[in-house]
Amino acid sequence: MWKKEVLILFLPSINEALVVKETVKGVQDEISLVQRKMETKEEIVNENGEASGILTDGSICGFESLHLLLESNLSPQFFKEVSRLLIGLNCGKALEPLTVVETAKGLSSEHDFNIQAFRFNADKELLREPRIVRVGLIQNSIALPTTAPFFDQKKAIFQKLKPIIDAAGASGVNILCLQEAWMMPFAFCTREKRWCEFAEPADGESTQFLQGFARKYNMVMVNPILERDLKHGETIWNTAVIIGNNGNIIGKHRKNHIPRVGDFNESTYYMEGNTGHPVFETAYGKIGVNICYGRHHPLNWLAFGLNGAEIVFNPSATVGELSEPMWPIEARNAAIANSYFVGSINRVGTEVFPNPFTSGDGKPQHADFGHFYGSSHVSAPDASCTPSLSRNKDGLLISDMNLNLCRQLKDKWGFRMTARYELYADMLSRYVKPDFEPQVISDPLLPKNHL
Description:
Elements: H1 4-9, H2 14-29, H3 33-48, H4 66-73, H5 76-87, E1 96-97, H6 102-111, E2 114-120, E3 132-139, H7 150-170, E4 175-177, H8 205-217, E5 220-229, E6 235-243, E7 249-254, E8 260-261, E9 264-265, E10 280-282, E11 285-289, H9 298-306, E12 311-316, H10 320-323, H11 327-338, E13 341-346, E14 348-357, E15 366-373, E16 377-379, E17 395-402, H12 404-413, H13 415-418, H14 421-431
Parallel strand pairs: 2-17, 3-4, 4-5, 11-12, 12-13
Antiparallel strand pairs: 1-2, 3-17, 5-6, 6-7, 8-9, 10-11, 13-16, 14-15
């Protein structure tokens, strides 16, 4: 919105200036409800001396996402430029929105979940046809309090996900990925072993539930679960099961990196994965799954790229205080550096557990991890990305991807050709040995006791 003083500069007379002042005052008196929420929040922040603009409902100053906050408070011209810098350009143009089919719109309205859809284009090629794949990401909160019987909790989550999956199927989604451990509360780090009851075999109840949708909609599905390995002493893993579009199980990948930070000390529940960095060749493209904490490890992203991934999913569960500034950066960097698409999914809501726990960091005991801030999005190899889904609402994000863009960006930037893998391999082979010596060349004039 133009400031009153700027508008007055363009007026030929004081009288006209007074008229415009009154007009501006009238417009200001008609500020939208959402903007008033934002102002109210600012007053609360000032009164309490807090720096955060995040309301207890998980919104940002009353808005569901940063994108909506900026769009509502910037002029169209300014918002266009800010969007260009924040989410980039796809093939030199703003990311193209897709029309959502009426069936999906109806399900979204009836079951109160957000739905957004976009298209990533690629340059036209002379020797290859476009390779379009429609990808869906689902983020959701739990359906019942964590105090409810486990059977009821799981059944309720299944029922909650059904209309969202149906909306994806009605929209023609080819590959659909759910969030990390979607079939349960994110109870890890309470350190209570009873939550292990949610663990199931790779071909267990959750996979069987999704196999029906895969066959119905001819859709590949990525099913992140807590896996109980019945063949190896019932060891528990954090696993993504890949279900083919015919309902078959293509394979599985187990989470490589287990966090040991704050409340997220998940080694209480499951082991580091032993499946490497598999890429699954599906009917619609080659996909990998970098589960949650693995996104903080650049070599983990790299390995999926070296194995030929065109799309890598990052099903996650992460809270605002810990990771939100990193969330829009890491996946986008991975997409750029490895010339593939990345689908980032985070759960939504604050999950309160019956027994308080501590992190061993001197902070008071608490009964929740904080707010899971959603904000699921897709990043492309050309540095463009979609706006994020809501911070506080269930959602379905649909993206058409022209996979030709992956090779086009490899050709453009030449990261694979200019990388020096032999140097990295030599360095890493020395680093893992007990007698490793860092390659440090010290200034001979430094004091001998210099650290």
